[in-house]
Design brief:
Keywords: ATP-binding, Kinase, Membrane, Nucleotide-binding, Phosphoprotein, Transferase, Transmembrane, Transmembrane helix, Two-component regulatory system. This is histidine kinase. It catalyses: ATP + protein L-histidine = ADP + protein N-phospho-L-histidine. Pfam families: HATPase_c, HisKA_3. It contains 14 helices and 5 strands. Helix 12 runs antiparallel to helix 14. The longest helix is centred in the middle third of the chain and has 78 residues. Strand 4 and strand 5 form a beta hairpin. By secondary structure, it is α+β, with helices and mostly antiparallel strands. It has 3 domains: 193 residues, no CATH class; 77 residues; 140 residues, Heat Shock Protein 90, CATH 3.30.565. The chain is rod-shaped. It is 60% helix and 8% strand. The protein has a 5-stranded mixed sheet with strand order 1-2-3-5-4, with helices on one face.
Length: 463
């Protein structure tokens, strides 16, 4: 067991260094070529010559060339394993057929080439490259073996009266043991390479399945976080907004309220708005984390020029009508909650105009006064429905003249009022002078001493 472990470590170290060095296979081919040349020289020296002695150098040259052709192609294994294996196999077959000899170095090269081709190349060529050697083994030990005609059988079994004379023997060595070994080991090496690659493919497939399962699990978790974010936004944030609105409405609409009660209601409104701010941050984290492609947290939209341009361009593309952005005053950076509320109000107003006044031109106006931000979204459509609460005229849409958020309009208008109130501002909706529909929001500006308390609002008609 220690010897096997040591050999395994040596093989792994050789593979690691061989993979790191581009000349590893060239070095292996060179070493085997030297061994093949030495073996070929020994075989040529002991080979009987039927004709003149001048034929011995020619045979030596032929055996050396065959030995080199059987080993040097290993240098091509990294780039052309099929070519290298075919050349080695063909050379060994030619060497046995022409000179009845095989070198141990050539046999090693065949095993290495077959294993490498089975591991990295096509399966069928790897098996075909090793197929000739079982056939050669059958021919070598059969009754029609050329070795039998050369007296090669006497090298295995002594004859009566002593060993055969030198001219009747093949003193350079019997190639049949090498052929038999190649007949067994060459297909085994090719199959081992194929099995090695199959195991690697199985490991890669298992790793891919594990990665896919992990990605699916992560996708499921992100979807669940997105669902939680939607529920927090649609349910919890809505009720907290109502708490803020009702607390401010109760404080302003209840006559003769003691100062302590008014302070407590004001504290309730402030706490609700702070909770909304924290919830927005939590929703931003959940939604950004649910985005599979988000590597960092993206900022919430606001009143930056890029955000406003993108909003207006999107409205133009969706409606196919004119949408104009008008900026008045000097733009300043406001509280992030105020900017987000203004952006969402403008976004919802543009959506309402596209839904209820298709084809109408829309103006989005932002006016910075220093103490407040005035947002107006006006279209030149037909205006509110005559049957709606806003049919009473512009005064019906003024703050304090309506019936509250529930009956004043649709859910879009209710959401805009809640956003404005949560940011400490107010919103009015109704018919615009000269026709059309107007959404007007007043939000705290940079120089505002405090949040503008929302007042009771009248509905301007359901859009």
């Amino acid at each position: 067991m220690p010897l096997a472990a040591t050999m395994a470590v040596m093989v792994r170290e050789w593979r690691r260094r061989g993979a790191a060095s581009p000349h590893a296979w060239t070095a292996v081919a060179g070493l085997l070529a030297l061994a093949a040349v030495a073996e070929s020289a020994m075989h040529a020296r002991g080979m009987p010559v039927d004709g003149a002695a001048a034929e011995r150098p020619a045979r030596l040259l032929a055996l050396v060339l065959l030995g080199l052709a059987a080993t040097l192609p290993l240098a091509l294994l990294p780039a052309q394993p099929a070519v290298a294996a075919v050349v080695v196999s063909a050379t060994l077959v030619l060497s046995f057929a022409a000179f009845h000899t095989l070198t141990a170095a050539g046999a090693c090269a065949q095993l290495i080439a077959g294993f490498r081709l089975g591991r990295t190349g096509p399966r069928l060529p790897a098996l075909l490259a090793s197929a000739p050697f079982p056939l050669l083994a059958i021919l070598a030990v059969g009754p029609f073996s050329p070795l039998a005609e050369a007296g090669g059988e006497n090298l295995v079994t002594p004859v009566s009266g002593g060993f055969p004379p030198p001219e009747a023997a093949v003193p350079y060595g019997d190639p049949r043991p090498v052929v038999l070994l190649l007949a067994c080991l060459a297909p085994a090496a090719a199959l081992a390479g194929i099995a090695w690659r199959a195991r690697g493919d199985a490991r890669a497939s298992d790793a891919a399945r594990a990665a896919a399962a992990g990605a699916l699990l992560e996708h499921t978790a992100r979807g669940e976080r997105a669902r939680i974010a939607r529920e927090l936004h649609d349910v919890v944030a809505h009720h907290i907004s109502l708490v803020a609105v009702q607390a401010e409405t109760a404080r302003l609409a209840t006559p003769g309220m003691p100062e302590a009660g008014a302070e407590r209601l004001s504290a309730i409104g402030d706490t609700a708005r702070a909770a909304l701010t924290e919830m927005r941050r939590l929703l931003g984290v959940l939604r950004d984390d649910a985005d599979a492609g988000a590597a960092d947290l993206r900022p919430q939209p606001g009143l930056r020029p890029a955000d406003l341009d993108a909003l207006v361009d999107e409205a133009r593309q969706a409606s196919g009508t004119a949408v104009r952005l008008v900026l008045r005053g000097t733009p300043v950076e406001l509280d992030p909650g105020v900017e987000l509320a203004a952006y969402r109000i403008a976004q919802e107003a543009l959506t309402n105009a596209r839904r209820h006044a298709p084809g109408a031109a829309v103006d989005v106006e932002l006016r910075y006064t220093g103490t407040e931000l005035l947002l107006r979204v006006r279209d030149n459509g037909p205006g509110p429905s005559p049957a709606g609460p806003g049919a009473a005229g512009p005064d019906a849409a003024a703050p304090g003249a309506g019936t509250g958020t529930a009956g004043a309009g649709g859910h879009g208008l209710t959401g805009m009022r809640e956003r404005a109130a949560a940011a400490g501002g107010e919103l009015r909706t109704g018919p615009a002078p000269g026709g059309g529909f107007l959404v007007e929001a007043r939000l705290p500006g940079e120089g505002s001493p405090g949040a503008i308390r929302p007042q009771a609002e009248a509905g301007g008609g359901r859009r």
